[in-house]
Amino acid sequence: MRHVKSIAIGLSLFAATILSTSTFAANKTEKPKEKLNTIHERIESLTKALGKTKEAHDDAADALKESEKAISETNRKLFELQQEQKKHSETLQALQTQKSGLENTIEGQKDQLSKQMYQQYLHGKQNYLQIILQEQDPSAASRQLKYFSYVTKARENLIHGMQSNLSQVTKLNEQTVDALQEVVNLKNKQQSERKNLESQKQSHSKIVEKLSSQISAQRNEIEKLKRDEKSLSQLVERLARAAQPKPQKPTEESKPKNISRETTANKPDTENRPQQALASNESLPSNAFDGGSFESLRGKLNLPVRGEVTNKFGNSRQDTGLTWKGLFIKSNEGNDVKSVASGRIVFADWMRGFGNLIIVDHGGGYMSLYGNNQALLRKMGDTVKGGDTIASVGNSGGNDTSGLYYELRSRSKPFDPMSWSVLR
C-alpha cells in the first residue's frame, strides 16, 4: 500500500512537471508573438508617416524650386545690369575724353582770339574801311575785304561750333551720369531682392534637409524593424517547436544570442564618407576650336568650371544602386560656368534633381548639360561660343555641396566626359 502511494505521488509530481513545462513554453511563445504584433503595428505606423513625410518633402521641394528659379532670374538680371553698367561706363569715359579734347581745342581758339583782339587793339581805331581806302590797288583792297570777312566768319563758326559741341557733350555727360546712377539704383534693388530670395532659399533648404533626414531615419528604422521582425519570427518558430512534447536538446545554433550576433553582423554601414577629390581642374574652355565639328574635339575639351572632380562617370551613387551618368565638380559658389564648345541653348530652366539646368546643343547629336547652378545667365535659343559664361556655380536642387553637375551626351546617351577632356 505504501508502495502504491509512492507511485501515485510520483505520477502526480511528473504530471505537474509536464504541465508546468508546457505552460512555461506557451508563455514564452505568447510574449514574442505579442512583441511581433507590436512591431507589425509600428512598421505600419511608420510607413504611413513616411508617406506623409514624402508629401511634405515634395511640397517643400516645389517651394525650393520656385525660390531657386526666382534667384536664377534675379542673377540673370543682375548680370545684364552689370553688362549695361559696363557699357555706360565706357560711353562715359569716351565722352569725357571727347569733352577734354574739345576743351583743349577751345582753349587754343581762345588764345588765338585773344591774340587777334590784341592785334586789333594795336591797330587802334582802324576799321575795315580805313584799311581798304589805304590800299592803292583796288584788287588788293578786295582781297583784304574778303580775307577779313573769311577770318571773321571762320572764327565765329569755329567758336559757335565749339560751344555747341561742348554744350552737347555736357548734356550727354549729364544723361550718362543719370543713366549710370539709375543702373546703380537698380543693381542695389536687385541685390536686396536677391538677398531676400537667398534667405528664402536657405529656409527651404533647411526644410528639405530636415525632411530628408527624417525620411532617411524612418527608412532606417523600418529596415531595422523588418530585420528584427525576421529574427523574432525565427525565435517564435523555435520556441513553438520547443513547446512540442518531443524533447529537444538546445544547440548553440538555436540560442537567441546567436540571432543577436547575426543581426548585428548584417547591420549595414550607413556612415557617410567624406567626398575626396578624384581630379583637379584649373583651366577653362575657350573659342579656340570653334568652327569645327564637336566630334573633332575628342581629347581637347576643358571642363566647364575650376574645381575638384569628386564623382566620376560610372561610379556608384551611394545607397541607390545607381551609377553616375556624368561628373560632379566641386566649385565655389558664384564661379563662372563656361560652355565647353559653341552651340545653341535648347534648355534653360529648373528641373527636379538637377536644380537650375542649362543644356547646349553642339550639333551632330552631341549635347552638354550643366546642372545645380546658382543662376542661368543665358536663355533658351541663345547662340554661344566656346568659353562663353552661361551660368554661375551653386547648389540648386537641394544639394549640400556647391558645385556643377556636368554631362556629355551623344544621341541622348551619356558618355564619359573625362575621356574627351584635358585637365590642367
TrEMBL record:
Q: Which UniProt keywords apply?
A: Coiled coil, Signal
The answer to whether UniProt assigns keyword Coiled coil to this entry is yes
Q: Region entry Disordered: which residue ranges?
A: 189-208, 240-291
Check the record and name the InterPro entries matching this protein. Cell_wall_metabolism_enzyme, Dup_hybrid_motif, M23ase_b-sheet_dom
Domain M23ase beta-sheet core positions? 324-417
Q: Where is the composition biased (Polar residues)?
A: 261-286
The leader peptide range reads: 1-25
An example of a GO molecular function for this protein is: metalloendopeptidase activity
Coiled-coil positions:
57-112
Q: Which Pfam families match?
A: Peptidase_M23
Q: What are the Basic and acidic residues biased-composition ranges? A: 249-260
Keyword Coiled coil annotated: yes
Q: What is this protein called?
A: Peptidase M23
State the organism of origin.
Candidatus Methylopumilus turicensis
Q: What is the lineage of its organism?
A: Bacteria, Pseudomonadati, Pseudomonadota, Betaproteobacteria, Nitrosomonadales
